Structure formats: C-alpha cells, structure tokens
C-alpha cells in the first residue's frame, strides 16, 4: 500500500500532467501544432520547460497520452484476470472497462490526424503498438510458464493482439473518429478476428 506522502506526490504529479496536456491541446487547436512551443505550453501551465519534459518526451507525446493511460490500465486490468482465462477474453474485459473521457478521446484523435505529418503519426503509432505488445507479452509469458514454446507463442501472439488494437484505432480514425463508442466496438471485433483461421478470409492453401 502506498504511503499518504507517496499518494499525495502521485496525485500532484498527475494534476500537473493533466494541466500540461490541457494547455498543450488548447495551444495546438488555437495556433497549430508547429507554432505551439514547449515554452509557451509550460508557461500556460505555470511550470518550467524542464517540468514539461519530465512528463512528455516531446510535443508529439502529448497527443498520445491517451494511449499511455490505456496501456497502464491494460497492465493493471490483466493483473486482476485469472490466469486460466483465455488471453483474448482478458484483453476484451480490459478494453471494455477503459475509463475514457470520450469527448477528450475524440478531440485528441482529430488533432492527431489533423496536425501531425503522416510519417510522424505512423512512427508514434508504431511506438505505441510496440509498447502494448511488450506489456501483453509479459502477461502471456507468465501464463505460458512451463511450455517449451512459450517465448515463440508470446512473441507472435503479443504482436498480433497489439496489431489488432491499433488496427481498430486506424480504421476508426480513417472513418472520421467521431464516436468513441465505435472505437470500443471495433476493438472487440478486431480481437474476435484473431480467433478465426486466416484461411477464412484469404482462402486455404492450394
């Protein structure tokens, strides 16, 4: 259990992070991504540039903070699921319970697609997908303990599951990203696709 001082410190840190994110999003929306400087964002939030970089590696990272929150939630949720439960079921429960602010999610998605160059957006999404794969792999390895092929199964399945999560996000964004409820539905459908044999979609061998 965290001590009162630790909880207070974590709460203060989260408030600072939330304030920085809110100020950054306001700047991006009003002045454009390129003209919004870290110095201006930090000043709006009443902190130093150094404090900004303690919370975000770069301006781009602000637009992906929702993914980081989802990653933290996913890790915590998977810890609570029984190890005997199929991993796709566990992921589905975690996804459906994400405590998203749907309006913020919608606004951030539109800003991402509208403000970032395609190559920057693609690179950031690849980084996010890699982070999700790493977290899922960690849980899979625990569940697969004792299997001789645990490393291979965990490596393949973690990448496939992370790809499904990001694939749903990509389809949602390309469709306009207006309704966050649709993102949750697409994500569950994407996970269900992993239960089906590939031949069902592209034909069998020969």
Give a verbal description of the structure.
The structure is a single chain. The longest helix is centred in the N-terminal third of the chain and has 28 residues, at 4-31. The chain folds into two domains: 4-59, Arc Repressor Mutant, subunit A (Orthogonal Bundle), CATH 1.10.10; 63-195, Tetracycline Repressor, domain 2. The relative contact order is 0.09. By secondary structure, the protein is mainly α. The radius of gyration is 19 Å and the shape is globular. The chain starts with a helix and ends with a helix. It has eleven helices and no strands.
Q: Main attributes?
A:
206 residues; Arc Repressor Mutant, subunit A; Tetracycline Repressor, domain 2; 11 helices; 0% strand; globular
Output the radius of gyration.
19 Å
Distance between the first and last residues' Cα: 58 Å
Helix content: over 70%
The main β sheet shows up as: none
State the secondary-structure class: mainly alpha
Q: What do we call the CATH topology of the largest domain?
A: Tetracycline Repressor, domain 2
Number of strands: 0
Question: What is the CATH architecture descriptor of the largest domain?
Answer: Orthogonal Bundle
* Mean residue pLDDT: 86
Name the CATH class of the largest domain: Mainly Alpha
Helical element count?
11
Q: What's the order of the H and E elements?
A: HHHHHHHHHHH
């Amino acid at each position: 259990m965290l001590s009162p001082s630790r909880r207070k410190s974590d709460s203060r840190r989260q408030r600072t992070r939330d304030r920085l994110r809110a100020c950054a999003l306001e700047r991006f929306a009003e002045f454009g991504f390129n003209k919004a400087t870290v110095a201006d964002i930090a000043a709006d939030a009443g902190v130093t540039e150094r404090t900004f970089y303690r919370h975000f590696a770069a301006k781009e990272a602000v637009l992906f903070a929702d993914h980081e929150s989802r990653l933290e939630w996913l890790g915590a949720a998977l810890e609570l699921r029984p190890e005997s439960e199929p991993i796709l079921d566990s992921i589905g429960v975690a996804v459906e319970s994400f405590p998203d602010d749907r309006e913020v999610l919608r606004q951030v998605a539109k800003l991402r697609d509208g403000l970032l160059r395609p190559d920057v957006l693609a690179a950031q999404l690849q980084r996010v997908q890699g982070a999700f794969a790493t977290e899922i792999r960690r849980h899979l390895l625990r569940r697969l303990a004792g299997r001789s092929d645990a490393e291979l199964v965990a490596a393949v399945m973690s990448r496939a599951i992370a790809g499904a999560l990001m694939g749903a996000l990509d389809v949602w964004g390309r469709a306009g990203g207006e309704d966050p409820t649709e993102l949750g539905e697409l994500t569950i459908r994407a996970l269900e696709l992993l239960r089906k044999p590939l031949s069902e979609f592209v034909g069998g061998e020969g």
